[in-house]
Amino acid sequence: MSNTFWIAFLGIAYLLALFAIAYATDKSREKGRSLVNNPWVYSFSLAVYCTSWTFYGSVGQAASTGLGFLPIYLGPTLVFLLAPSLLKRVVSFCRTEGVTSLPDLLEVLYGKGWSLGALATTMMVVGVTPYIGLQLKAIGYTFDLLAGRTAASGIFGDAAFWAALGLSIFAGLFGARSLVASERHEGMVAAVAFESAVKLGAFLVLGIYIVFGIGGGFAAVFEKSLADPDLARLFMLGESSGTSLPSWVALSILSGVAVILLPRQFHMLAVENAKESHLKTASWAFPAYLLFINILVLPVALVGNLYGEGSTQDFFMISLPLERGHAELAFLAYLGGFSAATSMVIVESVALATMILHHTGSTLLERILPTFRVQAGRDLSRPLLYTKRFVIFGVVLLGYGFKRWIGDSHTLVATGLLSFSAVFQFAPAILLGFYWKGGTRTGALAGLAAGFMIWFYTLLLPSFADSGWVSGSLLTNGPWGVEMLRPRALFGLDGFDTWTHALIWSLVFNLGAY
């Protein structure tokens, strides 16, 4: 049989295994026994942070910028090691107040009202949709690579589409079992923790094979790389390496915020927390996980640069064993990347669907349902549950749409950082809401709106230009030929990388408006 059949079979079998784990966990909970009320399960569930960006994109980033991949994991590591009191305060506050999402948290901090929750939800959906698309792109690309086929032109021939369909069904069944937003989804948590173990094990096995089986060990890889001027720069920081110090600082800040405020991270950290005491273990176990899954990234990237036969840098993990005829290891790489991508899509779509139903759709529901209930005299819980599942399906398809029409022109890392920067816009309002009593609802609205506009103008709009949706002259000449308004050099601020530039201006406008 063809590789296509076996790869599809592997993906379906893996999803069925996740179904079995989630189903068994939920049944155990119904009998009064929780399988996820464990600090190790909680710690591994937080590793949903490590997506296909980690499994594939970090190697690609290290292959081009060397140590430039580290800030994405340095930021979260510092937050968990140095600021456990902040994490405890967030979790404790959310458990006490019944907070189930970031829009909920903002409304508790600044007072309930439709506008703030709706704005926050809209920002999250727009900002995080590219990240879902990133995962689907990785699944589709690696499927085609392993099957030895060219990317399909039609939707129904696209592996990413079928992955989106399967993952939305899983998320709908195990992430929308109840309309009680504060209810924990133990089956989903168990599946995510299992996936975290799978992707870590797969990465270590493949990393050891690539470094020692292809590269001849650490000493040989580093010695040969240092002798090559083009590769020796990857061991340094600075403009020559492609990663400047301002970029390191900016990316560390973005990732440190993202590990708390990304919808899936906030959901796992606060909503799915069974006991606050589990944070004690997670405060060092999660950084340890990040260390182990990244320890071989740079050596693998160096081996790929030395021995890769024209492979795409983002996918060295799967192409290197494939080029040497080790199909079984290539299958393992696909499984690891598939695992990393699926856990993110499942949790992210559930978190976003909860926001949408409880905020942007709440006003409409409040107006329609009371009248309908009186007229029909029927229980609406089941139709609402189906509505939530439909929203989950829609969120995943939005991600697929971004992947298909925009995301293919971006690297995995660039797409991920687009979402990190969007989520960062929530940091000023939330941190000031916790630690400063002078903040107001109007200030929070103004800060979020200003930050979102800067993010859209300096990051999302240029991505449209890169994809051909908007004229490229916008980037080089600015709108109406006004160079001071160039999205990547706004008001003449030049010389910084894209992410540092956007971070600086979003802080200025976000905090200023607040």
Keywords summarizing the entry:
single chain, 514 residues, mainly alpha, 24 helices
C-alpha Rg, in Å?
23 Å
What would you call the quaternary organization?
single chain
> What's the helix-strand series?
HHHHHHHHHHHHHHHHHHHHHHHH
- Give the termini separation: 61 Å
Write down the overall mean pLDDT: 81
The total count of helices amounts to 24
The major sheet is characterized as: none
Strand content: under 5%
SSE-based structural type: mainly alpha
| Share of residues in helices | over 70%
Describe the structure.
The chain has helices at residues 3-30, 39-46, 52-65, 71-82, 84-97, 102-110, 114-147, 159-175, 186-214, 218-226, 229-232, 245-261, 263-271, 278-294, 297-307, 316-323, 327-358, 362-376, 381-405, 412-424, 427-435, 441-466, 473-477, 498-513. It is built from 24 helices and no strands. 74% of the residues lie in helices and 0% in strands. By secondary structure, the protein is mainly α. The model is unreliable at 371-377 (pLDDT under 50). The chain is globular and about 60 Å long.
SSE arrangement:
Elements: H1 3-30, H2 39-46, H3 52-65, H4 71-82, H5 84-97, H6 102-110, H7 114-147, H8 159-175, H9 186-214, H10 218-226, H11 229-232, H12 245-261, H13 263-271, H14 278-294, H15 297-307, H16 316-323, H17 327-358, H18 362-376, H19 381-405, H20 412-424, H21 427-435, H22 441-466, H23 473-477, H24 498-513
